[in-house]
Write a structure and sequence with these properties.
The complex is a heterodimer of chains A (312) and B (293). Chain A has eleven helices and no strands. With 312 residues, chain A is mostly helical. Classes of the chains: A mainly alpha (312), B alpha/beta (293).
Chain lengths: 312, 293
């Protein structure tokens, strides 16, 4: 048998392997994004557009702030629903399908570390959610802006047809109505709600990616991820009910451990506050971003540990 | 030339635990050892379930060895960096069907660190090599089986690996497409690339391979140069052209006079069914396009 000294002569005129390569990750992310786009996931956008436009015309007999709240409520709820659908269904389709089609063999037989493969998939789905939320946000903001302007014009018209003691009083009333409507209309604070939706969807993407590394099918991945999402939504309520305020350290520690595996989505629930027009403090946003990073790191590392041992 | 073998498999054993309560297990590969020299075309043959694919998967780092070692040009095949030396075409590959042929090659090229003008050049070169220039901008979902195999072969060699592993590269491909893939494998040999070919088509293995290993029930039952394995030592073949009946009669008479020599067969040599098919259907040079869906 020949000596086992490695023959290090280069295989071709191309760059040698690097332990971690961002361009490789971005190639995988780009491939994932293209795959999902060409699966026509953006067709869901048509449903969103219908929901937003329908909400802008619905319940015209509501009070002005009621109309705007309804539009914001329906739009942000739709954004949240679609981004979570993209996160779960999009991610669940990726790894099981790559294994089933043997595409994974051809990728992992190139000098691609398994962590990079997972990162690429995660970034690809995250980019898809980001782009789809931007598109939904632009449409929502445009419809909200037009609705806000039309309500203000309508209110000014009503006020101008009323009799006021003086012109100053009329103008004061117009200013008050405009301020009230604008406060419920398109504001930067609303974007905090969209950011929260994005961060929540990213956490869910990480969870689904983790599930798909040990799941045997797409349907199992989707069902398990949906279950984790429901647990994540309800766990803070369950914790409050079961532990109460005077619970000892051990149950609290156990509950903390559970909340690492099953993300506690309560921390991302700022949409209701945003819809009612309450300002979201920067600290809350920073806390949410930090929580997202912590969850992503935990879930990605767990996914890597499982996937690196996975036999294909 | 390097003395390091392109592939070195030493005492490879792979046991699969079955998901049963009795903790049963199956030995898919049982203490296999062989080396492949650089530049050789090595045929790995055996019936279904004999352990060929498992051996290849361990070599490619897709499975772990229970015992033993695999090395590619001296580097442990479990290491990710050993894969810059390897190109792999799995059996019945699907690839990403939403990508075009050109995008597919660009995708795999980028994974190997090739970018910009070199990637563009290499992609064009390979599309020409596998005769898919006319379908380069069509999605793979519209490719025929033979075309998919050829684009698969192109992706396997995009980064100019020194070892190419082909698992049933002609499975389900018609004779014309099969011949094209065979020609591509022979072209790899002229470039000094080592090839491991796993195939059920023994005729094809016989046609292209220098060396063969036969795996049966997880064990390497025969291994060696094809010419050595194929020769029947106690028989001699004489091939004559334009022999007259008188010459043949004289040969028969000469042999009949020998006590220790027996004439086993005298007649016309036969062509292969594949060659006959290709001759009748007009050869293989221009028939790829008519199999396009």
């Amino acid at each position: 048998m020949a000596t086992a000294t490695p023959d290090n002569s280069p295989p071709g005129p191309y760059p040698r392997h690097r332990r971690f390569s961002l361009p490789r990750v971005l190639t995988l992310a780009g491939g994932t994004f293209t795959q999902l786009v060409r699966m026509k996931v953006f067709y869901f956008m048509a449903l969103f557009a219908v929901a937003v436009i329908a909400a802008s015309f619905a319940f015209a007999d509501l009070q002005t702030d009621g109309q705007l709240k309804l539009l914001k409520d329906v739009s942000l709820a739709s954004m949240s629903l679609f981004s979570m659908l993209f996160a779960i269904a999009g991610t669940a389709l990726l790894i099981p399908r790559d294994i089933e089609d043997r595409t994974l063999y051809t990728i992992l037989c190139k000098p691609v570390p398994r962590l990079e493969y997972l990162l690429g998939k995660l970034l690809g789905v995250a980019f898809l959610i980001f782009i789809s939320l931007i598109l939904m946000d632009v449409l929502f903001s445009a419809v909200l802006y037009l609705k806000e302007k039309s309500i203000i014009a309508e209110q000014i018209n009503i006020l101008q047809n009323r009799k006021f003691a003086s012109r100053e009083l009329l103008e004061a009333n117009i200013a008050a109505v405009s301020d009230a409507v604008t406060g419920q209309g398109l504001t930067w604070n609303l974007q905090n709600g969209v950011i929260a939706i994005f961060l929540k969807a990213i956490v869910l993407t990480g969870v689904t990616l983790l599930v798909s590394t040990f799941a045997s099918s797409t349907i199992f991945t989707i069902m398990t991820s949906l279950a984790i999402m429901v647990i994540g939504q309800a766990q803070s309520i369950a914790r409050d009910v079961l532990l109460g305020e005077d619970a000892s350290a051990v149950p609290r520690l156990i509950a903390g451990g559970i909340s690492l595996l099953f993300p506690d989505f309560k921390g991302f629930d700022i949409v209701d506050a945003v819809v009612t027009g309450s300002a979201v403090p920067a600290l809350v946003m920073a806390k949410m971003a930090g929580l997202t990073i912590v969850y992503l790191v935990i879930h990605l590392m767990a996914a890597y540990v499982i996937f690196s041992d996975k036999e294909l | 030339m390097s003395t390091v073998p392109a592939v070195s498999i030493q005492n490879l054993t792979r046991v699969f635990r079955l998901p049963t309560l009795r903790r049963e297990s199956v030995t898919a590969v049982d203490d296999i050892s062989f080396d492949i020299a650089p530049g050789q075309i090595y045929g790995l043959i055996g019936p279904n379930g004999s352990g060929k694919s498992t051996t290849m998967k361990v070599l490619l780092g897709l499975l772990r060895a229970t015992k033993g070692k695999c090395a590619i040009f001296g580097r442990d095949s479990a290491r990710v960096d050993s894969r810059e030396e390897v190109g792999f075409l799995p059996e019945n590959p699907y690839f990403y069907r939403h990508l075009t042929g050109r995008e597919t090659l660009a995708f795999y090229g980028k994974l190997c660190g090739i970018r910009g003008a070199p990637l563009k050049e290499r992609t064009a070169e390979l599309l020409a090599l596998v005769e898919l220039e006319h379908a380069a901008d069509r999605r793979l979902s519209s490719y025929s089986k033979g075309m998919l195999q050829r684009i698969g072969l192109a992706q396997a060699i995009i980064h100019r690996p020194r070892l190419v592993v082909l698992d049933e590269p002609t499975a389900g491909v018609d004779p014309g497409g099969s011949r094209k893939i065979r020609d591509l494998i022979l072209a790899l040999r002229t470039q000094g690339i080592t090839v491991i070919l796993s195939s059920h088509l023994l005729e094809q293995v016989q046609e292209v391979c220098d060396r063969v290993g036969i795996i049966y029930k997880g064990k390497l039952v025969r291994e060696g140069l094809l010419s050595d394995l194929m020769s029947i030592e106690d028989q001699t073949e004489i091939l004559l052209r334009n022999a007259t009946p008188e010459v043949l009669a004289a040969v028969r008479a000469l042999i009949a006079g020998q006590q220790t020599t027996e004439l086993l067969h005298l007649g016309n040599p036969r062509t292969t069914l594949e060659r006959l098919f290709l001759d009748v259907t007009g050869g293989s040079a221009a028939d790829a396009r008519e199999y396009v869906k």
